[in-house]
Amino acid sequence: MGRYKLRALAGAVMAAAALAALPGVAGAAPKQAMVRIAHFSPDAEYVDVYVVTLNRKQMFPNVFYKNVSAYWAVNAGPFTYEVRPAGVSATTAPVVRLTGDLKPGGAYTVVAVGKKTDLSAVLLSDDLSPTDRNSTKVRFLDAAVDLPPLDIAVGGKVVSPGVSFSSSTGYRQLPTGLVRLEARKAGGTDVVIRDELSLKAGTVNSVALIGGAGQPREAFRFADATGVRTMPSGALRTGDGGMAPSPSRQPAALGLLTMAGAAALGGAALARWALSRRRRNAS
Amino acid sequence: MGAVPAAPERELTVRRRRPARLGLAAATAALALLLGACAQRTTAGAGASGSAPAPATLAAPPILAPLPAGVPTPGLLAPAVPAGVPAPGVPTPGVPAGVPAPGVPAPPDASTSTASAKSLRIEVAPLPSQVMSPGPPSPPARLSIPAIGVRSSLVGLGLAGDGSMEVPVDYGRAGWFTEGTLPGETGPAVIAGHVDSKTGPAVFYRLRDLRRGDTIHVDRADGVRLRFVVEERAQYPKASFPSAAVYGPVPWSALRLVTCGGEFDRARGSYRDNVVVYARLAGFSR
Known about the structure:
The structure holds two protein chains of two kinds. Chain A is an alpha+beta fold. Chain A has two helices and 16 strands.
């Protein structure tokens, strides 16, 4: 019985040992996410934006119309975004408050949209994964106030029909180069915003349709991220082995296993020795 | 992971048998020592991978905090602050009555419960800028990495016939990927160099010694010196080269240095792994 238990213990310790020996399991860095803010409220001239995450409580004073921040790193997890008129105390009730959950490794944009009297916030998840070969990724955000839903056309062809205010399309791959962009009243030919976009290969872009309430209507493009123009395949051949050690060496993984095994055997032997000693003492 | 909590539980079971427990303690201690040795070996392997094949770290480069204040930010996306805008911390005229004066503790406010429940101090900062531009684009000319004694002029590298990135012909020089982004521009600038030739060390022989926080300088043709800071170094089996992490979209100006590492496969005449150093633009000077 006792011996059985000891063996079980040795087994458990060995399993723990094997796990501990796996690289990357222990001591992982705190999980982080990236977040940035954008302000597209046409008549809320400047505001104070507060962002509260697990590790930070940050205030950005005087955020202007069309401001888009860089991403900054925060701990993943619960997240609060608040907007107050510029200069008021942090303890006054915010004009807008949004809560969300930031996933580890995720990238997010929090956008303030709507007129000052009807401000709201949208939390967008940003997909910064690579684009297809020779193409670009674009998503559209409808932040233009006082308009019906919009059909978004690229090069004369509707790519995103019926986009409603304060909503965003997903990313779509588009051909690179200069493209003609139109936002039309949904289902019709009435163009409300017309622009040209220069799209480069490998880039990830957001285009916000903004304006109204005293501001000109326009397509405001902001970059999410940039990758290489052409993604090479696979690994690089950057060594000829002149400095490589002789091939007689054991691979490290095998070495580790051997060591773990030896440790377990040693442990078991010690345990057995202790057990026999206890028995001798008892008899 | 599941086996980890099991160990103390079983230890409790045998607690009644004191002598045996002593023996067990000794056994556990011996195990711990040996394991410690193993763990140390693992860490050392990650550091000096040329001689000891290191376990591959497949983690993507970490996201760093925004660049420190004081970094020059010409070309700021944000419009300039107009006169008359209230400065942070300055009491603003027109603030509604009832707002506590500075220095007076504010009564708890239900609407900011999340914000005020914790004692995290509010950090006040300007919006992190989208653009840190060292001026109009200019191709890179030289690379220097003081920590590992690298000084090299840079050759242009395109795509090889098989679709992979070309590598420098000259073992003593590093090269930059012309299909990537220019160092200093938003996106990943990729620089490759050999770890060794058939006969001796090459330009990136000591790349595996770079540590987080080390400085990498890229001098551009226009005379601007870019300063990158190492975020992470990792090693990958060539079969699982992290193309997305190395070449994929990044929101800032990034630099990746690539060479070989791990074990040398004599049958194939190539190393089994690639070593990648991930760095990020931290400043520039003329």
